[in-house]
Amino acid sequence: MDQKKYAKLEQGITPKPPILKNCIKAFLVGGAFCLVAQFIALFYMTFFDFTERTASNPTVATMIFISMLLTGFGLYKKIGQIGGAGASVPITGFGNAVVSAAIEHKSEGYVLGVGGNIFKLAGSVILFGVFSAFLVALVKTILVKLGVVSW
Amino acid sequence: MIRQLLPILCILLLLSGCVPNEFTVENQTGEDANEAENLLKKDDRIKGAAALFYEDHLIVGVRVKTFDRFNKRKIAKELEKKLKETYPDLSVFVSADSKILTETNKLILKDDAKGIKKKIHYLISLSEEET
């Protein structure tokens, strides 16, 4: 059996993933996270001195904190099973990636286990986030210096 | 349990969107406030506003329509320019931030005039914060 034949056979047997259904689920779960975050932002705006613009930072911190708690209690993986990308793309997925890696490597000790592996999954997020932020800032600085846009 | 609560939750969430959008103008100066009210009502990108004239200040919080929120800062700037032309004697401040809108509404409903000026200055400094 050559490679092409095998690929054809494999494609015939593998069940087709329900893409549309998954998309709808991810949309709903991701939307639910955003709804909760919106309420938290509203809470910060109503009871503290945050404006719409400044409320985003404490909201993000709170959402990460909630997702870390949910990961520790083992509830986030259940949400992730239903939501798929809807649970991993928002900022809550970042908190989940950090804490689940820490829990996984706890048995190897706190320094080399937890400390060395805590950013195993989230490290790429941080690296490429910082790098793309740098690129965008560079482009914007050049555009501002040229007088195309203003800050 | 969750299945029973879900419809109730949905209805509550849908209804919570029904916040009254209205135009409130409070005038505590000798200026003519009608012009500001007309200007705000004429703009079809705005669905609600609160304006407070106090001593030499005019503070306006506006709620822009959902899809105009992308340009909300630009809209606020435009309105501020127009209002400044109408009231050259007042120091005008317009913001599309919902915090400013709710706080302006609170100031309008406030009974005693003590500390209103301080609060207005505080709101202006609050809206200038970037992070």
UniProtKB/TrEMBL annotation, chain A:
InterPro entries: Spore_V_AC, SpoVA. The chain crosses the membrane at residues 26-47, 59-76, 83-103, 123-143. Signal peptide: none annotated. Pfam families: SpoVAC_SpoVAEB. It comes from the Bacteria. Keywords: Membrane, Transmembrane, Transmembrane helix. This is Stage V sporulation protein AC. It comes from Sporosarcina luteola. The gene is spoVAC.
